[in-house]
Every structure is written in C-alpha cells, then in structure tokens.
Amino acid sequence: MSEVLSDGKKNCDFEYEAKYFDVVNLQVRQLEGFAMPKELEISEKQNGMLDAEYGFGWRHIIAFLGTFGFMTNYLIIFNLSVTIVSMVNNTALEDQSWERLEKIRNETLPFSPSLCAAPNQTTVDKDGPFLWSRTQMGIVLGSFYYGYIWTQMPGGLLSAKFGGKWIFGLGTFLAGVLTFFVPLAAAAGVEYLIAIRVLQGLSEAIFIISKAKDKYYLQQFRAILAQWVPPHERTKIPTLTISGCSFGIVIAFITSGLLADSNFLGGWPSVFYVCGLISCIWFAVWVIFVSSNPAGHRFIRDAEKDYIAKCLSRDLKSRNQDGKVPGMMDLPWKAIITSTAVWAVFISHFTFNWCNYTLLTSLPTYFNTVLGLNLRANGLLSAIPYVAQTVVQIVVGPVADTLRSKCGLKTELVRKLLDCSAHFFPGICIIAVGHIGCDTTAAIALLSTAVGLTGLTGGGFFVNLFDISPQYAGVIFGMSNTLATIPGIAGPYLTQTLIRDEPTVASWQIVFYIAASLYFFSTIFYMIFAKASIQWWADPQYEKKKKSTSAKERF
C-alpha cells in the first residue's frame, strides 16, 4: 500500500510503478493518447491523492512546452502537403496531359472522368513557378521518410548520452532552420528540395525517439517525461503533450492554405518562413525553461522536486528476475519473427500508416486536381478528417475500458473489434469516395469518416503489443515502426505515379482501391491471427526455465 510521508503527504505506490515502467516500452504510442490496457491503469486512490501543492507544477509547464514542440514538428512535416499545390504550375501540368485524358476517357463511369479536373474548371488562385512532374512531386512528398527511417535508434542512443532536452530541442530546431531553406532549395532544383526534406527527416526522427523510452531496444534510454512525470500521472500529462501532433496536422493544413493563398512574403514561401520562425522561438523558450530531469531544473521548487524524486526513486527494471536488461543477442528473435500474433501487429501497423501517410501527403492534391478546390478551401477541408481522428483517439480509451469492464468482453475480442473496425469501415468509405464523382460534401464526409475511424486502432494493434509481449514490447514496436515507415516513402510516390497522366476521378479510384485492399487484407489477417495473451516466448517463466536448463547442461 501507499507509504505515508513524514509531512503527511502520500507517496506513490511503488507496487504499481513497475507496471508503468513496462508500459513505457510503448511510450511512442502511449504518448499519443492511445488507450492502455485497463489492467495497467492506476487509480488515484491506489497511489495517494496529490496534495494541492503538487496539483500544478513545472512538470505540467514542461508538458505544455512539449505539446508545442510536437505541434511545431508536425507543422514542419506536413506543411508541404498543401503548399506544394501552389508551388507547381498546375495549368501546365493539366495542359500537358489533357490530350491524353481525352483518349483514355473511362466510358464505364456514370460521369465524365474529367468533369472536376478540366483546366477551365479549376479554381486554383495561383500557379507556382515549378514544372515538376507528378512522379517528382511524389518523391518530394515522401522524401522526408527517406531520412526518418534511418535515425530512430541513433536518436535514442544520443538522447541516452546527452539528455532528451537537447536531442528533442536540437532536432526540432535543426528541422526548423532547414525549413527556411526550402524555398531556396526548390528554386535551385527539385533534387535540392529532396535533400532538404531528407535532412529534416533525419532530425525529426531523432526528435521522435527522444520522446520515447524503450529500455530493451535502446538500452535503458530515459525520456524526458519518464523522468518528470510520476507513474500515476502518465495517463494524463502525456496525453496532453502528444495532442500537439494532431493539432499540428490540423494547423499545418489550415495555415498552409491561408498563407500560400496570400501575398505575405511572396505567398507559398511564407509557409516555410513562418514555420521556421515558430521553431526557433519555441527552441529558445525550451532551452530556458526545460531540463532533462527535475534535479537540473533552475526554477522548480524543492517540494515538487522531492515529490517527483520519491515517485521515481526506483530505477527502470525489466520483468526479468535478475533486474538486468536483456541484450540484443539474448532476445528470442526467431520466435518473434515467426509469431503470427506479432505479424498481425506488423501488418495492421503497416496498412494503417500506408493509408494515413498517403492521405496526409496526397489529400490536398486530390482536392485540387479532382475537386478543383482553391488553396484556402483546400487547407481548411483537408484538416477536417484529422479533427475527426483526434476526437476518436480521445474517446477510444474509455470505449475500450467500457467494453471490457461493463460489457464483459474479453481483451482479445475488444482488440479485434476495434482494430478491424478501424480498417474495414474506412476501406468501404475510401472505395465510396472514388464513386461519388464531384460531390465535394460527400467526399469530405466519407474521408472524415474513414480517417476518423482509424483512430480506433488506439484500442487495437497499438496496445496489442503489450498484450502479447510486455517483456519485449519495445523490440516489437521498434521493428514494427521501421516497417511502417516504408509506406511514407512508397505511398506518395505510387500515388503520384498512378495519377501522373490522368489526375481524374478514374485515376484516383486506383489509389483508393489499393488502400482499401490493404485495409481489407489487414482486417482478415488481424481477425484470424491477433492474440491478447502473453506468448510463450515472452513469458518470464519460460526465460527463467530456459536459463535454468542451460545452466544444468553446462554441468
């Protein structure tokens, strides 16, 4: 039970602390506000009610600054999705492909495939200076992930050595500084713009990992929040922090459309100047008011520092009985790689990211080339689906808990119900988008429903990692996240390649069919193979028996 401190305040219940440290293996997704398994939740009664003196402190201010950090990074990542519409000469692209469009018109459609995309119907206010092909645009939109995929583990190692404050801060600052050079790089040539985006991906990957904490995969790497936030507050404060991601996407789409359509600083270049300036201002505030741990903070009160120290007094330990963190060679690699339960997570994660990245990078292009929306409307309407996704992500936790606690459903059934719903119904909606023609209202409604429902994966494969292997959850997530980054590279490229010569409803149907097919395949695979029980190779007792057997064989 909770200890009572000499000053009358209750300390954290260390009996439950270890569970939270295990959950940290999934910190990347936990911080995004996704639901954690109910058995890992800790009530305030179990941990002791916080005294009013500790109700608000520097840990909350740091979380608030972290929220803006996430928002800033997502501004940098996705501002190009809308802005690229105003950077290219759309009229020239349409003129080049119009004769071909007339020859390959799909007569099976109940409407003209060129109805929304005809040059004399487009409502783009401004044409940009660049004559980039659709294939080049796809490479540009996906080039960020060429850098992102390589620095996940190095970022964690750097954070472990230098502290999360500086790696997180410098990663954001570097990406922001590079953003200033995007207009110059674009003017120099598309290859220079691609190089800038790759470098941004390298720095952003370091930033993302510095906010994670993966004790198995990154050898006891300690994240900022893990050193600041008491265990029983890790379902509240991190949720606030990671909400900056969703807000960043929404703000990126809205502000990019408004700025690109204005005359401020030349129109579209202002998007990158403003984002770069925001990054620099945030970094200055971050450096002044944030430290990697409470002990090094210059403004924190001793009372709050002592409270956090007592709550986090135990070092991070794995579930191993000897308290040692297993090395990379000690992991059951063959069992992990051949586990169908693990592959259910991999495939669900991959398909989720394929559709998510494809829409994030290409949705504004669809609204422009097919529906003929101008920049302002494009930015505003592109943001709506991600507002819906944010709302679903917030409510999925309570929904999952209710299904288990009040409805009596087993954890495995809840995981499958939510995850399959998050893939099957969006697949139907995406197919429908390709068949509603030029109805903008219907397209927005269907896309918002599709993207919004994907938020249900927060109660599905994201937390399923801890269900099947709490001991190696970090390793599995590291592998899964690396595989799931591939769609960020391949998705935009394939999309722009498919619509290269015919950016019409007909060509976009192919894009939607591919996404829907992946959704349906994931639904079937996850329904059959997903599990919610600890796998035999992840059972601590199995590891203990294996070590005992090995010791006997040596003698």
Describe this protein's structure.
By secondary structure, this protein is mostly helical. The protein folds into two domains: 19-35 and 56-88 and 133-313, Growth Hormone, Chain: A (Up-down Bundle), CATH 1.20.1250; 97-127 and 327-555, MFS general substrate transporter like domains (Growth Hormone, Chain: A, Up-down Bundle), CATH 1.20.1250. It is 66% helix and 0% strand. The chain has 25 helices and no strands. The longest helix is centred in the C-terminal third of the chain and has 31 residues, at 375-405. The protein is globular, with a radius of gyration of 24 Å. The two termini are 43 Å apart. Residues 1-53, 98-115, 117-124, 209-222 and 314-325 have low confidence and may be disordered. One of its GO terms (cellular component) is membrane. It is found in: Membrane. It holds the Pfam family MFS_1. The chain crosses the membrane at residues 57-77, 166-186, 240-259, 271-291, 335-359, 379-396, 442-465, 472-490, 510-529. It is a multi-pass membrane protein.
SSE layout and pairings?
Blueprint: H1 14-23, H2 27-30, H3 44-47, H4 58-87, H5 90-103, H6 134-142, H7 144-148, H8 152-162, H9 164-180, H10 182-188, H11 190-210, H12 224-228, H13 237-260, H14 268-289, H15 302-311, H16 333-338, H17 340-369, H18 375-405, H19 411-433, H20 440-453, H21 461-468, H22 473-483, H23 486-498, H24 505-529, H25 540-554
Helix pairs in contact: 4-9, 4-13, 4-14, 4-17, 4-18, 6-23, 8-9, 8-11, 9-11, 9-14, 10-11, 13-14, 13-18, 17-18, 17-21, 17-22, 17-23, 17-24, 18-20, 19-20, 19-24
Protein name: Sialin
GO biological process, one term: monoatomic anion transport
Membrane topology: Multi-pass membrane protein
